[in-house]
Amino acid sequence: LAVKDPTAVERANLLNMAKLSIKGLIESALSFGRTLDSDYPPLQQFFVVMEHCLKHGLKVRKSFLSYNKTIWGPLELVEKLYPEAEEIAASVRDLPGLKTPLGRARAWLRLALMQKKMADYLRCLIIQRDLLSEFYEYHALMMEEEGAVIVGLLVGLNVIDANLCVKGEDLDSQVGVIDFSVYLKSDDDIGGKERDVQIAAILDQKNYVEELNRQLNSTVSSLHARVDSLEKSNTKLIEELAIAKNNIIKLQEENHQLRSENTLILMKTQHHLEATKVDVEAELQTYKHSRQGLDEMYSEARRQLREESQLRQDMENELVVQVSMKHEIELAMKLLEKDIHEKQDTLIGLRQQLDEVKAINVEMYQKLQVKLLQTKQEREM
């Protein structure tokens, strides 16, 4: 026997469930004889079946914290393809009680049914299969002929008047499980073939729950990996901060050393000038007391005076050089202080970034705890 494609079996099962749900909803609504509200069981089952049909073959999208599969993405695309759908999309976004994309998608389906435009909206969506390929796999129900058949069946819902209160209803936490007991009743018009289809749908639902559990396990693993990477990056930032502190200490030591050398140079220059002044005064006193050999002494004195003048000029030049070196050193000190201030600002920025990373780590840890709690609750459920 040829092995059937499991995706084709899933599409056929979903199509049969959609047929049963839409047929039962229309028949019960016509016999009911008045406007339907949110508590009407066949209407609730219809929305659950539509949700499963739209979820079939939906691609897994990686978000910041986990992997998710939501039908709000393709439904939100309708307003770009059908201008009349902009009002319903805006209404869904403005609803105050909705927190999840799945809740917004459920509200969108209810508003579309009340407008009697659901078939039109989904028809313009399945026509643009190149855009749908961003959200669905190639074997998804919305990408195959079964999706067009379901859209055609939805036209029959235009005979139903629905008055649904979307505002204030908890659409985020509703559990979309198909109640097969409604379709497994022993009626005369239901044959054995339809019973087999429904049993196959139940098995598909069980497989879907198992696959969801596997995806949740992979999500937890990815969260653990992300926490490890954040801890490593935090350790790296602490090491870089320690290196920056060591560089600042080295720069402060160099600054102190340069100040000490500057003070020592000034002291040596002053001492040299004082010694030179004392020598000149001593030579002048000796010249005054010795009058002998005036001509020779005079020439000798003039010679010595020239030498001393040259020496004084040299000393003055050296003093100018020292003064200019002092100014250059002061300028270098100012530049060094400016560099130190800039590095201190950089250190402050690094500390702020470290605080932000710590805050992100705390937030990520809290979100991880919440996600683990949700995963545990989902596993228990």
UniProtKB/TrEMBL annotation:
Would the keyword Calcium be found if you checked this record's keyword annotation?
no
Q: Which UniProt keywords apply?
A: Coiled coil
Start and end residues of each RUN domain: 37-169
Please give the InterPro entries that the UniProt record associates with this protein.
RUFY1-3 (IPR047335), Run_dom (IPR004012), Run_dom_sf (IPR037213), RUN_RUFY2 (IPR047332)
Which residues fall in a coiled-coil region? 220-261, 298-353
Pfam families, alphabetically? Answer: RUN
- Leader sequence range is none
Q: Looking at the keywords, is Oxidoreductase present?
A: no
Q: Which GO terms describe its cellular component?
A: cytoplasm
The cross-references to PANTHER family, in alphabetical order and at most eight, read: RUN AND FYVE DOMAIN-CONTAINING PROTEIN 2 (PTHR45956:SF3), RUN AND FYVE DOMAIN-CONTAINING PROTEIN 2-LIKE PROTEIN (PTHR45956)
Which protein, by its recorded name, is this?
A: RUFY2 protein
Q: What gene is behind this protein?
A: Rufy2
